[in-house]
């Protein structure tokens, strides 16, 4: 009941009538039935964006990799595991979306082959051949509708602005949200973040804030852009 009341009265419904797709969390690329390649993403930032969009009246689809947190209520959740799963789910659901926000930390590489049985330990070293995964955000950037708003995320450890701007341009994005793992309070697993919101004409650095607040700030900026 409380969640329903919050949904109805806590926020202005400035996203009413909009369809919003959010990707969140990590992916897992199987090595064998026991082991996989993944990353430290917890999905907290993406889940916060999905929840804020829902509270503001949007019809939200959340495509989520394996996460240990509960998804927000009143949101359509599509659970995936691998980068391939994420690619299929996002591209299949992107067509009728008004706003697409890709926060998921999707693996860039996967094992070329997945062993059917557990790989046993042997003497000496072992190497695993990796192959590139499909580029989700690049595919969307190339095939988007003109009236869609496409926002990506960039997690960097150096040259954050330079690398993020390059990604913005290369992937044909309207906005990219950058954060630096080396900044205290930012990055994976924390309840806070330090973000820089980058568009083709500007970069706005925001102070340390809770991820729920960062989610609201990101959607505020997106709304300003689509209302122009």
Automatic annotation (TrEMBL):
Native species: Candidatus Eubacterium avistercoris
Alphabetized Pfam families for the sequence: DFP
Entry keywords, A to Z: Ligase, Lyase
Name this polypeptide is given: Bifunctional phosphopantothenoylcysteine decarboxylase/phosphopantothenate--cysteine ligase CoaBC
Taxonomic lineage from the root: Bacteria, Bacillati, Bacillota, Clostridia, Eubacteriales
GO molecular function: FMN binding; phosphopantothenate--cysteine ligase activity; phosphopantothenoylcysteine decarboxylase activity
InterPro entries from the UniProt entry: CoaB-like_sf, CoaBC, DNA/pantothenate-metab_flavo_C
GO biological process: coenzyme A biosynthetic process; pantothenate catabolic process
Domain DNA/pantothenate metabolism flavoprotein C-terminal span(s) in chain numbering: 15-224
Gene this chain is encoded by: coaBC
EC number: 4.1.1.36, 6.3.2.5
SUPFAM superfamilies (UniProt xref): CoaB-like
């Amino acid at each position: 009941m409380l969640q329903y009341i919050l949904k109805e009265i806590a926020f202005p419904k400035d996203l009413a009538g909009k369809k919003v797709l959010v990707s969140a969390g990590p992916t897992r690329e199987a090595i064998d039935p026991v082991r996989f390649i993944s990353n430290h993403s917890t999905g907290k930032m993406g889940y916060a964006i999905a929840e804020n969009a829902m509270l503001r009246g949007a019809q939200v689809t959340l495509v989520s990799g394996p996460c240990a947190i509960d998804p927000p209520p009143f949101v359509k959740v599509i659970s995936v595991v691998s980068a391939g799963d994420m690619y299929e789910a996002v591209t299949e659901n992107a067509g009728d979306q008004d706003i697409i926000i890709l926060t998921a930390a999707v693996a860039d590489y996967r094992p070329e082959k997945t062993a059917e049985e557990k790989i046993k330990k042997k003497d000496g070293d072992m190497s695993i051949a990796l192959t590139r995964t499909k580029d989700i955000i690049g595919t969307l950037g190339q095939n988007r509708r003109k009236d869609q708003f496409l926002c990506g995320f960039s997690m960097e450890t150096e040259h954050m602005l330079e690398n993020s701007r390059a990604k913005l341009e290369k992937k044909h994005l309207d906005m990219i949200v950058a954060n630096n793992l080396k900044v205290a309070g930012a990055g994976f697993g924390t309840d806070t973040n330090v973000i820089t919101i980058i568009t083709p004409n500007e970069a706005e650095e925001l102070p340390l804030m809770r991820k729920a607040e960062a989610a609201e700030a990101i959607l505020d900026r997106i709304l300003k852009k689509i209302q122009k």
